Amino acid sequence: MRFRLTPRETSFYDMFAASADNIVTGSKLLMELLGADASARAEIAERMRAAEHAGDDATHAIFHQLNSSFITPFDREDIYTLASSLDDIMDFMEEAVDLVVLYNVEELPKGVEQQIEVLARAADLTAEAMPNLRTMENLTEYWIEVNRLENQADQIHRKLLAHLFNGKYDAIEVLKLKQIVDVLEEAADAFEHVANTVETIAVKES
Fold it and tell me: How wide is the angle at C-alpha 115 spanned by C-alphas 146 and 131, nearest 5°?
């Protein structure tokens, strides 16, 4: 890591870690949704909405700190990109849960549980990685694994689409379910964006 002659604002590290921990909360709510009946889903969606609001607050806190800090731990643009990408993950997860409730989906198609398992694993890895931004150590395996998970998510998504279009579902149900699985795929992409941003930061700081 480069030797610096100036002090750095270190509270960003704690805020990134808090944002990632909140994403783990969101992934657990997604897992909870899988085993819930229709009557319990509205309450889960309410808790997910609260988690998404907490994520927004965390993102705004990072932006406020960024705008008020003279010295930052790494490039301002990278701080903004990382915070925004973490926020995107929560937005997509909350949207998926909300759509399940709004569309009154009785049963999610087989394969959605695999999508959510991938997201939960990526969430855990992201939460574990954020504290390592302080030292920029032990991050390579993180972004490699998240990229592998995103490739896995792509494969699951394609299989889900093939299943939805196999003629079992009516056209309206296909539209509803496709929107849900597409949003979950966007969440997987957002995890990859976070990992790629961390890689960019680590390369610049090496």
Answer: 35
Give the pLDDT confidence score for residue 9 in this predicted structure. 54
pLDDT at residue number 168: 87
SS (H, E, C) the chain: CCCCCCCCCCHHHHHHHHHHHHHHHHHHHHHHHHCCCHHHHHHHHHHHHHHHHHHHHHHHHHHHHHHHCCCCCCCHHHHHHHHHHHHHHHHHHHHHHHHHHHCCCCCCCCCHHHHHHHHHHHHHHHHHHHHHHHCCCCCHHHHHHHHHHHHHHHHHHHHHHHHHCCCCCCHHHHHHHHHHHHHHHHHHHHHHHHHHHHHHHHHHHC
pLDDT at residue 106 in the model? 85
Hey, what are 52's tokens? 């998404």
Q: How many angstroms separate the most distant Cα atoms in the chain?
A: 65
Residues in the chain where the model's pLDDT stays below 50: 1-8
pTM of the model: 0.92
